[in-house]
Amino acid sequence: MIIVMNAPTAEETARVLEKIRHSGLEPHCLVDRGKTIITAVGGADPGRSEQFERLAGVERVVAVQTPYKLASREFRAENSVVAVGGVTFGADAVPIIAGPCAVESYDQFRETALGAKAAGAVMLRGGAFKPRTSPYSFQGLETEGLAILRTVGREVGLPVVTEVTDPRAVELVATHADMLQIGARNMQNFALLKEVAQAGRPVLLKRGAAADIQEWLMAAEYLLSGGTAAVVLCERGIRTFETHTRNTLDLSAVPLVKHLSHLPVIVDPSHGTGNWRLVGPMARAAVAAGADGLIIEIHPWPEEALSDGPQSLTLANFRQLTRELAKVAAAVGRTINSGKGGQKR
Amino acid sequence: MIIVMNAPTAEETARVLEKIRHSGLEPHCLVDRGKTIITAVGGADPGRSEQFERLAGVERVVAVQTPYKLASREFRAENSVVAVGGVTFGADAVPIIAGPCAVESYDQFRETALGAKAAGAVMLRGGAFKPRTSPYSFQGLETEGLAILRTVGREVGLPVVTEVTDPRAVELVATHADMLQIGARNMQNFALLKEVAQAGRPVLLKRGAAADIQEWLMAAEYLLSGGTAAVVLCERGIRTFETHTRNTLDLSAVPLVKHLSHLPVIVDPSHGTGNWRLVGPMARAAVAAGADGLIIEIHPWPEEALSDGPQSLTLANFRQLTRELAKVAAAVGRTINSGKGGQKR
Amino acid sequence: MIIVMNAPTAEETARVLEKIRHSGLEPHCLVDRGKTIITAVGGADPGRSEQFERLAGVERVVAVQTPYKLASREFRAENSVVAVGGVTFGADAVPIIAGPCAVESYDQFRETALGAKAAGAVMLRGGAFKPRTSPYSFQGLETEGLAILRTVGREVGLPVVTEVTDPRAVELVATHADMLQIGARNMQNFALLKEVAQAGRPVLLKRGAAADIQEWLMAAEYLLSGGTAAVVLCERGIRTFETHTRNTLDLSAVPLVKHLSHLPVIVDPSHGTGNWRLVGPMARAAVAAGADGLIIEIHPWPEEALSDGPQSLTLANFRQLTRELAKVAAAVGRTINSGKGGQKR
Amino acid sequence: MIIVMNAPTAEETARVLEKIRHSGLEPHCLVDRGKTIITAVGGADPGRSEQFERLAGVERVVAVQTPYKLASREFRAENSVVAVGGVTFGADAVPIIAGPCAVESYDQFRETALGAKAAGAVMLRGGAFKPRTSPYSFQGLETEGLAILRTVGREVGLPVVTEVTDPRAVELVATHADMLQIGARNMQNFALLKEVAQAGRPVLLKRGAAADIQEWLMAAEYLLSGGTAAVVLCERGIRTFETHTRNTLDLSAVPLVKHLSHLPVIVDPSHGTGNWRLVGPMARAAVAAGADGLIIEIHPWPEEALSDGPQSLTLANFRQLTRELAKVAAAVGRTINSGKGGQKR
């Protein structure tokens, strides 16, 4: 922790030095043209820095250590590999997860699942509990949707991931799904994170629309410190002034997170753009940037979808895309994890 | 709903018209220099518009009706007044809520509460369950904090508001607090909103850091349609590129929300700026802009606070501020609801 | 300058130390749990820090000194007062500048000017060169507009401010206007800033829509170091994800800039909101927050305005507003500088 | 143009209808649950819509036609190809432009240029006039830098692009450079755009850090309507709340602009990220997303660079990258335009 003071009095400096020593840290003090720079060395609690900002004469406090530990590259130098059924995230292969925004019926989900698998997807997605901006919008089939997810997943032979939005539903969802998704709106729903950390399932943690990289890694830290080792991060776009896309897909987060953390990072170009025309180019770009997987919304009849139709690919679009992705993956020394499919638990 | 098509074929136009009629709506079609403009009149479900965006030839779909109903000025022309104990939000008086970020101990909260009341606050705030970015930061006293809140509130004779972060804790919090707060991070935690809507307590709904005005009103709609009539909105800053303040306090939201909605709006200049030096000016500005109340973080010893010390006023700062606020309120034809204090339930 | 290195080798550390010494600075080195913290003391050129970021082992470089000098409170402790004609910015009085977005004709500008003065404005605004997003929009009356500005300003007896957008036009504009405005789009048009700095006129420097506080003060530094002592800053809203207002008016910039700098700060609630309904509340809020002036768009017939009609007040709206502002100013110990009017040069 | 009115009176509706007819347009009126929807058909001036927003009863005005014409896909269905020397943008090949942020000396620029060409770059970049946030930072070698640019470009046999920041310098820069760059800060410097449009050189138009897609295309429209046919767009990152990168590189702008416009789009991953570690991944991603070129900062000794060292690749980094890019380009059916080099004018 570094404390910068602006033209402090001797008493103000003494007060800061005393408080640093009282915290069990060792202060080192320098003066540079009106500023006093105090470096506090030792095992500081990161939350402690706030207490220094309010002291008289203090201009600002600069943290030196990253506030995340278990999620950091310092903690673990090699890439973590997360396995879900037979699918692995963080290894050479780049798995593709596909499926509809929402599970709408057995027939819709089964047709989508078969098409997804045929085109090379190795895991299925589908929402049963849908967080919707409007209370009057379709909220998902809920428990019935979970049953369809599990049934179709087994029939088709692919693992499934679905979002959980309520700590009271974690146990139920965990009995139906192979991987639990924390959605963007819930990235800092800490009650939910703590419950999911103990569910015994791998977790897909989406980045919040207003979360910076550090906050995202701190949310992962809740999961890792709470009991899960198997966390996959998912970039899905941030909120910016640009309204021509639903979100601004921040692909630079992929190499940056891989520099700061050992966790796998996948990309959701569907929510990231909100526009099916942009999904293909951004999926290709994600693989080229080093993404460890993709999660893509597809629908057999997008114009009839109960949610997110505008950003869903048709099955034909998706087949075309997986062929393109295989080439891009090869160009960066990886493979699209297709053909073999994921193996069910 | 208005559908703009770009140089559609006759088949594409026919498909849109058919789908509109099939939805029970009546289409009206115009052509203007390459664009076909179709206005669909009738009782459309707002979620329906997504299904049109994906149809071939459609460029975009423009909603005509606001998606919030119960929260709108159209639904209720006069201002809603929300009463909590003897305190009212939305009437002429401008109540001030004050207290520490977190309840840290009986002594800390009681001293703060007495100082707050003496300075003119009519309601107390204090966190028992704290949503913290880091799992290693102080998470609040939880149940013990709730008990302190209730005890001190009764001793001092002021109603209390506290945040609830977990749907499983709503009933417990509702037995200890006079008003339930939904924090910014949980504004779109719909499981929580639905549970809080049925708790039988007035609700303070903070704006999410990445929520626009419409999404904020939609979150209020979850509460209103779920069973609560008593909702108070709270502007607390949005996330922008500006890092010299913790958030960017969007004071224009106050007159804008009051134009669009009948609900009271208060302002939190403490989280809105993150800097105690800016709290006073922005509190005064909020009252001048028409805010229906203020919620301000104060602490008897901010430099020892376990959270949010940098943005907390001392008791002396706060006394000075309430005197200033009384003058600004008078200048805009209102009063600061001080002196009499709120009456406990 | 503080350099944080992450687990550097001895060679990497030695390279940084050598480079610091070579820059004429004195390095002080500390090690704290894997991080090496090097504080460089001495008269560093601020631009120098970039050269350290690229050295092997360096994680980041933290500047200690503010990069602006002449604009800082450290340079000048007391508030600067800028005089334009008989109008002063930065003293107790809060001057109101009013006028149309664009000068459209002699009659329009004269009617506006008379109404503005009658209502208490002490300076006139009006655009002759209009920076417009579209090449097909009205670009201003240009030279003819300048002549109208000067003529009407003299007839009415108020000083005028107008925007200059081209370094080649600075001399011409300076012969017609009492104060030169740098618009938000040109805040970092350094060729223009350098020219305006030498024009011998006070300058109104609007904040860029994507400029943070420090960049804004750096733009002021271009003016101050280039030859102008008389700079007035103008907050006019920043670009955020919120689309219900044209910009997000960042009123907290007012007290923050006044803490960091000695320069006067005024507020433009018209561009800051883009909506005439919000201009009054935000003008009141600005004065309550400590603004040193206001600049407000008014138009005798806003629905006929060639630009910015939606955010312009009518003359009747404006008269009502100045009465309200006088009360708010009194509440914060200031006065609206009205009645006497500004005196022409 | 569509005008939505909220519960208007008969007089208010009549006023809008009259004004539409007076503008030479034909109004069509529908009523839908409290809203009156008026569609105005005919050759409206886009700037006209503002005049309707201020009319009583009007809630909002929705434009139907895009405000850019010459830049639109409707105007020109096939991709435009822009040639600079022997280099083409918008065809199958993906040219790479490389060079230092600033021209610092003949030796530095020549060494960089030779390394760039050897690695496959077909055009050179280098700043002579540098727009710098601080007046105290290195501002470029200016005229001397231009001479070095031209000399080295001819010696090495590659065309050069450099930024012009002042309308008075356009002619001079145009005699030294093969392509003129409008920088991000000047995207809406309309005086500069108008001058550059007449300089007879192809133009590289960077996106402003706070410009949305439409504003960027409108800036291109200034160039196209002002006399240049040869415009290449350059995405270089937008300003968002994320501070871990210098900007947020909005790669989705590439496929989106190519959908809306016929103009070529290239990507600047150096300014887009501000971090040399992210330049390679984002350059690969840009090509995979369909970019028509890249502009990359390189420096023989980045740690000595006078500006932008932290985001500059070494020559060795750059050679490695061009090999990777060739593979990605092949995967998406394109080629990196290397080996042959651009031919000088």
Protein architecture, described:
The structure is a homotetramer of 345-residue chains. In chain A, helix 7 (213-226) links the parallel strand 12 and strand 13. The first copy, chain A, is α/β, with parallel strands linked by helices and 345 residues long. Residues 339-345 of chain A have low confidence and may be disordered. The N and C termini of chain A lie far apart (47 Å). Chain A is built from 11 helices and 16 strands. The radius of gyration of chain A is 23 Å and the shape is elongated. Chain A has 2 domains: 2-62, Phospho-2-dehydro-3-deoxyheptonate aldolase, domain 1 (Alpha-Beta Plaits); 82-336, TIM Barrel, CATH 3.20.20. In chain A, strands 14-13-12-11-10-9-8-15 form an 8-stranded parallel sheet. In chain A, strands 2-3-1-4 form a 4-stranded antiparallel sheet. In chain A, helix 6 crosses helix 7 and helix 10 runs parallel beside helix 11. Chain A has helices at residues 10-22, 50-53, 106-119, 143-156, 170-176, 190-196, 213-226, 253-260, 269-273, 276-289, 315-331; strands at 2-6, 26-32, 35-41, 58-62, 82-84, 87-89, 93-94, 96-99, 123-125, 160-163, 179-182, 203-206, 231-235, 265-267, 294-297, 335-336. Chains in contact: A-B, A-C, A-D, B-C, B-D, C-D. The interface between A and D is large, with 41 and 41 residues.
